Fold:
Amino acid sequence: MFIDSHSHLAEAEFESDLPSVLERARSALVERVLVIGDGADAAKTEKAVLLAEGEEDLDLAAGIHPHEAGLASEPSLENLVRLARSGSLVAWGEIGLDYHYRHATPEEQEEVFDRQLALAREVELPVVIHTREAEVRTLEILGEHFGNGGPAGVMHCFTGSLAMARCCLEMGFHISFSGMLTFPKAHDIRQVARAVPMDRLLIETDAPYLAPVPFRGRRNEPAFVVETARALAEVKQVSLEAVAKCTTENYQRLFGRAHPTGPVEAARVLGRGPGLVPGGSATGGLETAQ
Ligand SMILES: [Zn+2]
Ligand SMILES: [Zn+2]
Structure:
């Protein structure tokens, strides 16, 4: 059994055929998918919430993507806190910094990233981190919020350096690899994967983006996460079953509190009383991480 730890199933690319996408995932033994919901646009967030609530094997994360940092508002942040407190989310994200596209200025991105990290800690959710061409600032900002080695969250679609991976592991992060692990030229990514301990690994599709070999260039979907697992097994010199087992266990340890202890946890978070809400569209082709 496999788990796709990062998939944008509420996006328009899946509108016409989501039931068959989910059917293919189940047939491929992909037993659970973490849907990454948009956090900036309330209507899109709601769509992701309804989607995840309607399917037992879908979990939900939501957060304001760095591309959309310019669209962040107090209501959008309050809405995410409300969803977290109601037990709708297993994680806060994806959030982070992307200095490659710069759809928002670095200053805007850093402020929104920092705010969301603080809120995620407040509601006690692990975080899903997106970072591109912003390693140093990402580590600096994460370091202000994490560092005790507790279960912090996941560095999704990891493409950073070995040194970056080591820093993230030290802060308590898991490292997730996407279909890029199957790309012939991705030697650096495979080298990092080789160094990450088995108990910190996750796999993901980042669907609809970044389809693995042999589906490269097509729309990605959760069933294809098996190809990333296969590549990881080869890199780690272990069986496919061993990769399936450890990535599933890692996912459940990190995000699984809603299964089956969700209501208890939700009640506990709700019991904390009013929380801190301080004052204050993904684009690109299918070969681009989101
Ligand atoms: Zn993504
Ligand atoms: Zn991303």
In short: The radius of gyration is 17 Å. The pocket of zinc ion (ligand 1) is lined by residues 6, 8, 36, 94, 206, 290 (CB under 6 Å). The first strand starts at residue 2 and ends at 7.
